[in-house]
Amino acid sequence: xxxxxxxxxxxxxxxxxxxxxxxxxxxxxxxxxxxxxxxxxxxxxxxxxxxxxxxxxxxxxxxxxxxxxxxxxxxxxxxxxxxxxxxxxxxxxxxxxxxxxxxxxxxxxxxxxxxxxxxxxxxxxxxxxxxxxxxxxxxxxxxxxxxxxxxxxxxxxxxxxxxxxxxxxxxxxxxxxxxxxxxxxxxxxxxxxxxxxxxxxxxxxxxxxxxxxxxxxxxxxxxxxxxxxxxxxxxxxxxxxxxxxxxxxxxxxxxxxxxxx
Length: 261
What we know:
The protein is mainly α. It has helices spanning about 10-25, 30-45, 50-65, 75-90, 95-110, 115-135, 140-155, 155-175, 180-195, 195-215, 215-220, 225-235, 240-255.
């Protein structure tokens, strides 16, 4: 698509378009976000020779948006592959951005069932993150959490659980609070993949305690009750499981959302 203004102001417009795209995405205005990410990318492409990092960032941002859009993984792969290629060419100064792009790229490749490539990409991201941040850092934990996602897509629940535990350790060591959304997401993933029923109950209770204290469970996250109920059932705590699953059913009915399983 042609861009009318290829002058110096185009870079500032590209930045503004990207910021507006992220805002539109946050408010689930997907068509608007798509258009703005595309506009930003076109403008950065026009300045690729003088602003290659901006070009790579635009491809990475658009690829991230596309991977969150149903049925658009193949498009996402093209943009994230380009981002990785440009960041690699830019060398050590862009390793932080490369690590992030590799994480998104890996999960897209896993979604396309290109598992060997996905594992290679996410392992490179983990190694880069370890070198950049050390192991006691939230960003290293996030790389491990993405590695867990890739392992889960391959059906390797034992490795998924191991990586989620390692991610939680990194979050704790990095000072991420227990009520941070990343921590809650990884706890939920661990509860779903661990083969230890007692551990599943324990982590789902942690999630429930945090979300319950915020008043989020019935309105926004009834699946928390359902997940804990399922874990209690597997742990043999029949009465507690029945009570929790009844609460989950009532919460879904009140929120008008379908149960997930």
